[in-house]
Write a structure and sequence with these properties.
two-stranded antiparallel ribbon; alpha/beta; 7 helices; magnesium ion binding; 214 residues
């Protein structure tokens, strides 16, 4: 679910402007999962554009507090959400921790890095949601450390049904600054893509795991 429509449209436009989101229906990308995709999203680019990273930080900060109440801690999912998560925590005057994909194999064997007390209310910040599996592994690690998860806030989601079901099963409320639907609407309105390309992009979103260009 998006925080609000105006933010969703503005965020989509900014991501397209800096090529954090690339749309290429005629020459699809291959994801790490092996899926063929006419879209690629790299929200790490946001950190290199101060006005845009400040916009994302401010929208996160005000909407997190409005939707979830002010938490005790902000947690970022490594590695993509560490930078923006720190900015949000700084803006809200809150402690920050981050969650590794898995526990370290040496030292203190930490998966959650930073100071976190049992029972603290945590909002998790993520950069991108596809199936939600890796994001929810971070939630599991935080819960295992004793955190009370208030919800997750992400920059962008592809809006896959499997992700919706995964978050529902995990009992985690997910809100995003923008999503695939608003991105496509904006891309058509601003002539980033043609109507034919829009059709391809919408077809992909119905069955992304089996889609391929024809």
């Amino acid at each position: 679910m998006i925080f609000n429509k105006d933010t969703a449209e503005k965020t989509a436009e900014l991501l397209l402007q800096i090529n954090a989101i690339k749309l290429n229906p005629g020459n699809p990308f291959t994801w790490a999962s092996g899926w063929k995709s006419p879209i690629y999203c790299d929200n790490r680019l946001i950190l290199s554009f101060p006005p845009i990273r400040n916009y994302v930080r401010d929208e996160f900060s005000k909407n997190i507090e409005k939707q979830f109440g002010k938490p005790d801690v902000i947690a970022g999912v490594a590695t993509g959400a560490i930078g923006i998560g720190m900015l949000v925590a700084e803006s809200l005057g809150l402690p920050f921790v981050y969650v590794r994909p898995e526990a370290k194999k040496h030292g203190r064997l930490n998966q959650v890095e930073g100071f976190l007390q049992k029972g603290q209310n945590v909002v998790v910040v993520e950069d991108l949601i596809s199936t939600g599996n890796s994001s929810l592994l971070a939630v599991e690690a935080l819960r295992a450390a004793g955190a009370n998860i208030k919800g997750m806030a992400a920059i962008f989601t592809y809006g896959f049904d499997v992700a919706d079901q995964n978050f529902k099963n995990a009992k985690v409320d997910l809100y995003t600054l923008s999503n695939y639907q608003n991105l496509l609407n904006l891309a058509v309105a601003k002539s980033y893509i043609s109507e034919k390309e829009e059709k391809t992009l919408r077809e992909w979103s119905v069955s992304p795991s089996t889609w391929d260009i024809v």
